[in-house]
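If your schedule permits, I should be very grateful for your opinion on a structural question. Please examine both parts with care and let me know of anything in them that strikes you as inconsistent. The record follows directly beneath this note:
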Amino acid sequence: MPDYKAPLRDMRFVLNEVLDLDGHYAKLGLEEVNSELLNAFLEEGAKFAENELAPLNRSGDEEGCHFENGVVTTPKGFKEAYAKYVEGGWPAMGGDPEFGGQGLPGSSSIAISEMTGTANWSWSMYPGLSHGAVATIEAHGTDEQKNAYLPKLTSGEWTGTMCLTEPHCGSDLGILKTKAEPQGDGSYAITGTKIFISAGEHDMAENIVHIVLARLPDAPKGTKGISLFIVPKFHTDGNGGVGERNGVTCGSIEHKMGIKASATCVMNFDGATGYLIGPENKGLNCMFTFMNFARLGTAIQGVAHAELGFQGGLAYAKERLAMRSLAGPKNPDGPADPIIVHPDVRRMLLTSKAFAEGGRALVYLCAQLGDQVKLAQDDEERKQADDLMALLTPIAKAFVTEVGLEAANHGVQIYGGHGFIREWGMEQNVRDARISTLYEGTTGIQALDLLGRKVMMTQGQALRNFTKIVHKFCEAHGDNADLKELVEPLAAYNKEWGEMTQAVGMQAMQNPEYVGGAAVDYLMYSGYVTLAYLWARMAAKAQEQLAAGAGDEDFYKAKISTARFYMKRILPRAAGHKGAIEGGLDCMMELDAEHFAF
């Protein structure tokens, strides 16, 4: 297993230099939050991730979770690491001070989430969903509910889950069957089975607060008849502690391809007491508060696996000797050259580096937009940030996880046969990465959300808002000869993005199925262009710092070099996705289902 080292220099570059969080926080009136404070958090977060979590990554995978009589026991060391996490105050960073939180904006902890996730994704899932539970109760809960649950959820003493899908419905929540029967005291009896519940049961916290979708009696069919409920594992005792056990139990845990140290549970609700959050039959609307947090959290997973694949591949490529460079020996005193001299190995390393660092910039940008949505004083600024975040979130979730999985595979490939062997850790990275393109909505679901809801339903306005930002960037740097090879292709693809969207819209007017046929290729095209914009932006900042004599020349030159690689060797992939879209729908749909196999 490669030793994880938090990429603090690159994190600071994105946060402080590219995104200018000092200026961002000042504009939001957060004068007490600045880069000096964040740097201190980053240093301590890196120590925790590297020293406490990374050593448990492989052992947790080997041991997995234990299940017996409804009780889940996490792998050795997980519970102790979580206690240190809570003791260090990490869960409370973004929490409301009224409930014991530190009141910091969401962007202040995004790098912490990345570090814990890269060091040990399975472990990070236990506290990860609690942030979404907190946000949901904050946004939609009553004062009584907030006072009952937020203090312990904010501190991390309790954890939270999201309970959406059921054995028969997958992503189609409109057909869920879990029932909520009103009881005389204003509570509800929740009955049903939920599956794929991450951290639904474990031994790391004294209580688990489930956020559950269910149907009231006589509710409308489909998604318009879903309500949202708080269903705790243990009732509260009225004094901030736990009381009697509720009627919710873990029926089993899944045996999985990866993330084996994270308990993925079947949860049975047998007349469990629940409490309505938000209006009746508006549960899915309220749950989107939670789901948006989860989707951004999954985007972080894409960055994490790309980073781990890159770090492991780089260390091996520098040491492994095999063959000679075609241009002549680079290690004449040794029996062979290190494989990092070979162009194909460099292709894989640079691809992984480009996806890790580009994905990081995208996820951190989304976190910054989240700050503006929540804290900006101007209504129009909040709306613009919300619209842009809505467009970028499915791209971040789906594209970054797809390319994160690709980078994880490159990590295995760089090791050759050794990458297929467990002791090196690269195969675990692939197994753990595979789920990221599936949960919180598959790539296809995210693609339909992007193209169908975010683009088509706004008549393309949401996309134009973003392409206008990219256009202005290209105009501002159009006369910079040193950036010409980055800006010119970006400008061309940005223009083509809008034209392609218009063409898809015209086809969809003739046949709505065209949207489904084009969606995934459209999302991948969008992802490649979005990362091209961020790489051009990072290169521009690096060039500016070099011109100013800021020092750290090797770092900035590497950033520009990687941007050049992205534009020349990765961005052209977008053309293939455009060609696939233009290939049309007929070739997908003409074969009858019974004729797929003979």
About this structure: The chain has a mean pLDDT of 96. The longest strand covers residues 264-277.
